[in-house]
């Protein structure tokens, strides 16, 4: 299913907030780097170039990079850096790397490649039907039906976006630091916001999972991934079966392996 244990492949997931780079040896992640996407273009390029030099020294046989991006400007910067400093192949999901899953979205081109990569990884690693919860800057929940096709899903503003919107569009509510509350009923404004955020998203996800299972299949496997996946994981134990932090990147790796079969 995965590449040879002797092969090193670099994968990249360019998100709105963070860009994750993971080196895989076969199916095992052996090296990780995270870079803020939202910094200046100059600083972002410098960080990517520095990371690439480090990885090329550590893994001189590294010859393939698989990239998934939801930020076109950041993708262009990454491609420029690799064009200058990397001699191997750079394959970008949706361009020269196809995610081989049937897409039942009415407007197929509107689906983010990260969502398709997650769906494909869920299908290949855990089977179908399945539900993928990707908790990043946006919260997406996607369904793979029993026949193994991508059916679509829902998109909700993520935790960080919601808290920022609350602070920016109200006169008296502050920006709060994201942390888990130990209470349900807040006794001040900050506590009330944190409780609403944490318990509100828990209830939202549990409710949507229940509705999706009722519509598609009660036996659907639920996989949690994304930057806030670990943060929310303990509160979602009742509805989540697996936590897979590298689901997008494993989807890229599996798609690449499928093209070689």
What do you see in this structure?
This protein has 261 residues and is of the alpha/beta class. It folds into 2 domains: 85 residues, Nucleotidyltransferase, domain 5; 140 residues, 2-Layer Sandwich (Nucleotidyltransferase, domain 5). Helices cover 39% and strands 24% of the residues. The chain is built from 7 helices and 10 strands. The strands form 2 sheets. It has a 5-stranded mixed beta sheet, with helices on both faces.
Return the CATH architecture of the largest domain: 2-Layer Sandwich
Number of strands: 10
Total number of helical segments? Answer: 7
Unreliable residue runs: none
What is the H-and-E element order? EEEHEHEHEEEHHEHEH
What quaternary form is this? single chain
CATH topology of the largest domain: Nucleotidyltransferase, domain 5
Spatially, the strands of the biggest sheet line up as 3-2-1-4-5
Helix content: 25-40%
Q: Rg to the nearest angstrom?
A: 19 Å
Shape: globular
Question: What is the CATH class of the largest domain?
Answer: Alpha Beta
CATH-assigned homologous superfamily of the largest domain: ATPase, nucleotide binding domain
| Gap from first CA to last CA | 9 Å
Largest beta-sheet details: 5 strands, mixed
Calculate the mean pLDDT score and round it. Answer: 93
Report the structural category.
alpha/beta
Q: In the residues, how many domains can be counted?
A: 2
* Percent in strands: 15-25%
